[in-house]
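Q: I'm writing up a methods section and want to include an example of the input and output format. Could you take the sequence below and give the corresponding predicted structure tokens, formatted cleanly so I can copy it straight into the document?
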Amino acid sequence: MWPDAEAALIAWLTPHLGVRVCTDTPADLDHAVPLLRLQRIGGGDDGFRLDLAVVDLDAFAVTRAGAADLATRARTALLADLPGSALPDVVFTSAATVAAPAWRPWASQAVTRIGATYAVRLHTRP
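A: Here is the clean output for your methods example:
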């Protein structure tokens, strides 16, 4: 079975960046920042072991500078540290930027959202 890319990326990013990473924004987002929201938005797989996950990664913080810093840290981690990393069931082989971090609108003015899109290749461990 091919890997669950969202779960694998969350399991890798959370300890690597030391912030909460989730797939859904919490109801108390204004009080839960800083955090990253990761959502798979596309990609493809071979139906067996290989996966190319296209994911949106949104950094939320109280200030624009805080969100931008978190987005930059996440981008550096994905591009520089993720390739070659492994979890017990998954190996990450590459990551590339599809859309660089940029301000994205958000309903609440109490937080700032900086989002980016990445393509991540991974496969299950034999």
